[in-house]
Design brief:
Layout (H helix, E strand, L loop, with lengths): L3 E2 L2 H17 L6 E7 L3 H16 L3 E7 L5 H13 L5 E4 L9 H7 L11 H8 L8 H12 L8 E5 L6 H10 L3 E5 L6 H6 L3 E4 L17 E4 L3 E2 L5 E2 L4 H5 L4 E2 L6 H20 L2
Parallel strand pairs: 1-11, 2-3, 2-4, 5-6, 5-7, 7-8, 8-11
Antiparallel strand pairs: 9-10
Helix pairs in contact: 1-10, 2-10, 6-7, 6-10
The structure holds guanine (GUN).
The site of guanine (GUN) has 9 residues, from β4 and α6.
Catalytic activity: (6R)-5,10-methylene-5,6,7,8-tetrahydrofolate + NADP(+) = (6R)-5,10-methenyltetrahydrofolate + NADPH; (6R)-5,10-methenyltetrahydrofolate + H2O = (6R)-10-formyltetrahydrofolate + H(+)
Subunit structure: Homodimer.
GO molecular function: methenyltetrahydrofolate cyclohydrolase activity; methylenetetrahydrofolate dehydrogenase (NADP+) activity
Length: about 280
Amino acid sequence: MTAQILDGKAVGARIRAGLADRIMALPFRPGLRVVRVGEDPASVVYVRSKDRAAKEAGYDSETILLPEDVAESTLLETIAGLNADPAVDGILVQLPLPKHIDAQKVLEAVDPAKDVDGFHPVNAGRLAAGLPGLVPCTPKGVMHLLAEAGVKLSGARAVVLGRSAIVGRPMAALLLAADATVTMLHSRSRDIAAECRRAEVLVAAVGRANMVQGDWVAPGAVVIDVGINRKPDGKLTGDVDFEAASQHAGWITPVPGGVGPMTIACLLENTLEAALARRA
Ligand code: GUN
């Protein structure tokens, strides 16, 4: 079997075009502020992509740049200012933050109503409790891709590899909310390969290049690769051995061009959602 490709670039572009149409019809432009601290090379690229995509879709988007050695108190004051600004609907603080800053304290400083990353404990808690709220962009994007592949999640065996607060945990909550039977695997799990082989839907989000081998994938399974790992030659690769897994899977996401573009599309979706809720 050779898997069909789940093209996140195309799906993400379609979502962004739909958002642009909706925003054109609004009497206001949803406001997004992305805060970047320092010059982490990956963050520079990601933040630029987010800002560009937001502007293209008609958002009022600005990037706030703070120096690497900024005081934590200054960053918290910046966030307080954005919380209080009526033109701002969505706030995103790009991670990672420098070591001298308590990232959790910063994420908790964002008004949950403007928390378009869905990282505030209020939003994480609402998701865990099965309540509506702002949902982290990457797992939300994965749900769009699963819908695109026509996957019937109700009763399906879903395996989430990785338990991060940003992807694994919210991913499992979303799959559970869609009535899948969810197994979470992590660094202390036993028989990881055998557990993955039972998956009808396999989401890999561990950040270990090519960890998921071809024979970990059940025939016809849907494989979603959230990993973005840089190889020694500078090229990107996922958490899944793509070539080998493609011989077993029914659907598979490439890296790059799979989940990544969906994260940005969902950030814009969340920003519109936050704007409509705030301004209702
Ligand atoms: N760094 C890597 N991915 C993300 C993300 O989705 N949101 C934020 N804020 N920082 C990140």
